[in-house]
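To the team - iron/sulfur cluster complex, inputs and output below.
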Amino acid sequence: MCGHGGGAALAHNGGMNAPTLDAATAAPTDSSGPRQVRGACPHDCPDTCALISTVQDGRVIRVQGNPEHAPTAGVLCTKVSRYAERTHHPERLLQPMRRVGPKGPGARFEPIGWDEAIALAATRLGEIAARQPEAILPYSYAGTMGLVQGESMAARFFHRLGASLLDRTICASAGSEALVHTLGNKVGMKVANFADSRLILIWGSNSIASNLHFWRLAQEARRRGARLVCIDPRRSETADKCDEHIALRPGTDAALALAVMHELIVHDWLDHDYIAQYTLGWDALRERALQWPPARAAEVCGVPVAQIERLARDWGQTRPAAIRLNYGMQRVHGGGNAVRAVACLPALTGAWRHPAGGLLLSSSGWFKVNKHRLQRPDLLGERRPRTVNMSTIGDALCHPGDAAFGPRIEALVVYNSNPVAVAPESPRVVQGFAREDLFTVVLEHFQTDTADYADLLLPASTQLEHWDIHLSYGHTDVLLNRPAIAPLGQSLPNTEIFRRLARAMGFDDPCFADSDEQLCRQAIGDEQDFATLLAHGFASLPVPDAPFAQGGFPTPSGRCEFFSQRLADQGLDGLPDHVPNHELPDARHPLAMISPPARNFLNSSFVNVRSLRDIEGEPLLEMHPDDAAARGLQHGQLVRVYNDRGSYHCAVHLSQRARPGVVHGLGVWWRKLGPRGTNVNELTSQRLTDLGRAPVFYDCAVQVCAAEPLAESPKP
Ligand code: SF4
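Output:
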């Protein structure tokens, strides 16, 4: 961890009086003494920390948390405190390159100039667009969460082109849709108020690894007497430090929540007044919950009846009580229903009445972003391109095209994402990316697994080199990111790359001339004052302390919707229920596998930062000693984890973190850095969740055996 420090005075890059906000050119190149620049963490993490970068002689020498920003409190996670190491990494891509050998691992590239690279991309994309623009697919996600470098100029470019649209489902859409159908939006408690809770359920989250600043608040609550309960199949670092750990089977969270409801009903631990005034569908939910006595849920969840009863009693009798839900638990077939079931619990006990009661999964719905102004879907005109689900990119790239699917994908432009490593069922993903007739452009910082399949590899700037605006899904502040240094080498911000592409393709709409300063202002719209962001680096939304104390949910009914008519209208169950996993362990694949993030990586980012990789050690599978003994496996041994989709080779770690029957393949390693060039997504499937069309990374049955000697390793 790193806190506030450094002797240099906090200074604003570019000068307060005449800031030059064109990201491509603004960052200073002077070699004066140390100076500090305010920024924001770009990564896919609920905490959205405020950064302070110290710059000396054109290099960032330190990245720290901003102590003035309350959610950050001067502290960064280990990962991002190494951001300078990542930015000045010797393997940074610093010039455009064209592939000169075969696609795939070990691909070789030769440098070319920007003009040539842009002309090449524009020519190929232009040829395809002239015939069938939907044959071009943009693929991006949260490599940066920034509104400007994430989805502004790029979205404009693809809208103008008429390319296929991307359904951005890979992480959170099951839970997001569940929240929308229960609370009305991605809204919930103010995170700071958890410090005053008396009971906190940390549900589906290893907060120490992936929600560090919430964990600080939970510890504060505990010092004041709160009880912390962790609900997670894995005995995580967070579970170690809670008062109780409920190690349920993967994909059984809804059953647990329904059994809690059952107990609230039979013991009358309900807030009848809150239910009557501010909820919808109580009678129907009551009937559903009464079908889930603790004994039934205990059978499904694999936890003792007494533990379920204690959880229900705690929830029913403690005030204020709060739930910090995270997205891990929704990566299963019934993930949407599970989030709906858990999201009903605070309304049943009236927990929302107190500022320190309720639930938080995501706060992003509090922000009013004018995405239309940033992304300009009007550039499509009358065209209505198809939408391709990013979670099934493997199948999409392998699809020959037909009337239902639309045209075969002929070109792919990847930015802010590393799908060859992170998308499910990577054998299929690799098969798609390896197509010789697929033209692939990748904007990246490093030669990732995906970059190995690029025809054109374009160097993108990092967060320390460009402007951006960040919202948060864990708190309610808007942050401005200023460039601390000029883009390294020939790297460019995504915005500038798409500006140049637009120019080369003859797109002369005025919006393609917007500077990054203008895009920052468009991103915050009228909600925030840009001068405040320039002066302080962040600004808070005026969110009330107990937003649903008197109902007012942003649902169609204005109530917490136990029963969702909108879901029923789609032919779906209007009530939450337990939806079993797609893959229940069987004789051939008797182990349930989940793949939570390794503590020192963030998805596939940071895997190539040596100091962090050294902490992680090696790709590994956590397995209970009993399961290992049954297979004759020793701690540290190389094993083959397999199912019908593929085989993943890694070291097995015998660990009490795993419950019997469940293994944990910590992710997401780059394939090329793992034994035999695979990672855990070799095993995950392209099946989808009940709501939100999302992937089911934690709904995966496998078997494990000792790895065969290399020459004899069979195909699965
Ligand atoms: S990854 Fe999360 S905890 Fe780490 S610096 Fe970024 S926002 Fe903060």
